[in-house]
Write a structure and sequence with these properties.
alpha/beta; binds zinc ion; TIM Barrel; Double Stranded RNA Binding Domain; binds 3-methyl-2-oxobutanoic acid; 3 domains; elongated; eight-stranded parallel β-barrel; three-stranded antiparallel beta sheet
Amino acid sequence: MAFYFNESLKGRKIRIFDTTLRDGEQTPGVALTIDEKVCIAEKLDELGVNVIEAGFPNASEGDMAATRTIAGLDLSTADVCGLARVVKEDVDACIECDVDMVHIFVSTSDVQRIHTIKKTREEVSQMAVDAVEQIKDCGVKCMFSAMDATRTELSYLKEIFSRVESVGCDVINVPDTVGVIVPSEMYKLIKGINSAVKIPIDVHCHDDFGLASANSLAACEAGASQVQVTVNGLGERAGNADIAQVVMSLHSMYGARTTIRTERLFETSKLVERYTDVKMPITMPIIGDNAFAHESGIHAHGVIVESETFEPGIMTPEMVGHKRRIVLGKHTGSHAVEQALNVMDIQPNREQLREILSRVKQIADKGKRVTDSDLIAVADTVMGQVSRREQVIALKEVSVMTGNLITPTAAIKAIIDDQEQLAAHTGVGTVDAALKTLESMLGERFKVKIKDFRIEAISGGSDALAEVTIGVEDETGRMITASVAREDIVMASVEAFVVAINHLLSISR
Ligand code: KIV
Ligand code: ZN
């Protein structure tokens, strides 16, 4: 197959420096607890990153405690790093945390130097040199960042990088602090710096123009051997280069080597999404919900026959721990519908299939998401099998209680497999309490897990119609989605769960 593979990094080792816990936590609105930071650090270590920037110890007591705790973890591969300005107290704070590496930074561009730190170039260089010497005297690794390097004259960058190299700095970092460079210029900049220093070059790119990953790759092509990234591209303003995009491009499009276990990228993204509460767009490359989803008839047919027809091929969902999905909608073709039905052991004849397809399109044309339960209901009607589906659960009564003085609690009465049952459960909210009650009622006999849960307000106001979509998975990994729209979110959630369970159990029994 013809493919314009870039040979320039083939076999070369690129180190991955993760700054999710430092620059990533600078994402406006994100604040992580120490426990969450520890969980993320352990996940990053399992993922195989080379360095974890755990925090900026002198910035807050929380950062100090988190950095110290993470530095004390028994991580298997990652070095732990702390951030410091080129001032003694910041470096002292990092050393106190017992980090493996101190990352010092100072503004080098005129605009930042004149307006923020108000120092001359000579003063800035001297402060950088002093900080490197302080760190090296403590026997700790040191990385120096020339903040706003991409708006700093090359001659001054060369000078300051050479000076820190001469006093023992281990790595230099070239930050594109406000994300204003294009890949071809980043290439030239790194080449220029590379001609002046021998120590490894690292890059730190921001995504203001959506070029952070492309600029990081261009820097590697020009000789950088370490890249700073964050999970989900979190970071100041538009964020930093995304770990999944950079690593998968390095692996698949350049043949470079990293220590990342790529099949863990998706789960790592999900963990960080949960803790930071920053939801990824469905179109996010590699880890977004739609990264390997296909709807149009031509594409879905293509990937059902041979996945490489409409996917990169050099990157599969399995390689990143994601899943391929065929989504039913207005562009769906008969192959996708037939495959979805066959997975559920429903075998329509040609004519029935044509009718099912046309009804699926009618649902989608009304702007509605076509869930598995919709598909089953349509197939049942078209194939005349309405009574085939047995109801494992039939709801009788649902009540919930909440308020400022009580823990949200739900009580549900239902017929489960012909037996009336009554159960109650608490939760973080009434929806959670109700779903936990249903899960507890199904107990050991019907082991199911909720894999997907979304609420969308269809209309506005406090009496808005809300559509709840639930994905429920059985022990074999078979998943069914169902959605119900109602004014009451608890009832919509409970009913969607019941519809999904009834359909799931009727096809797997
Ligand atoms: O964007 C930036 O310049 C930084 C530095 C601290 C490296 O985050
Ligand atoms: Zn940054």
